[in-house]
Design goal:
Blueprint (H helix, E strand, L loop, with lengths): L11 E6 L22 E7 L15 E4 L5 E5 L2 E7 L3 E4 L1
Antiparallel strand pairs: 1-2, 1-5, 2-3, 3-6, 4-5
């Protein structure tokens, strides 16, 4: 797991997206232009939550999120997403 000096505020979560698939199940290589944006990632940091609702996800969990959820960040050459906890669809 990565160590990043970013601490999300309130109900926000910092996620490291999983790498995009490079081949299909049948072995066909997918070119960069046709790769889908990953919708799964690992939680790197979690905010404390709001006054009425603490966060439920924990650091290290793998989560599923919406295709266009969150804001993309690039910190020290690595890509991350920061999003509200409500944008997370499930814990895997």
């Amino acid at each position: 797991m990565s160590k990043v000096n970013i601490k999300p505020l309130a109900d926000r979560v910092l996620i490291e997206p999983s790498p995009a698939e490079t081949t299909t199940a049948s072995g066909i290589i997918i070119p960069d232009s046709a790769k889908e944006k990953p919708q799964k990632g690992t939680v790197i940091a979690v905010g404390k939550g709001t006054k009425n609702e603490p966060t439920t996800v924990k650091v290290g969990e793998t989560v599923l999120y919406g295709k266009y959820a969150g804001t993309e960040l690039n910190v020290e050459g690595k890509d991350y997403l920061i999003m509200r906890e409500s944008d997370i669809l499930a814990i895997v």
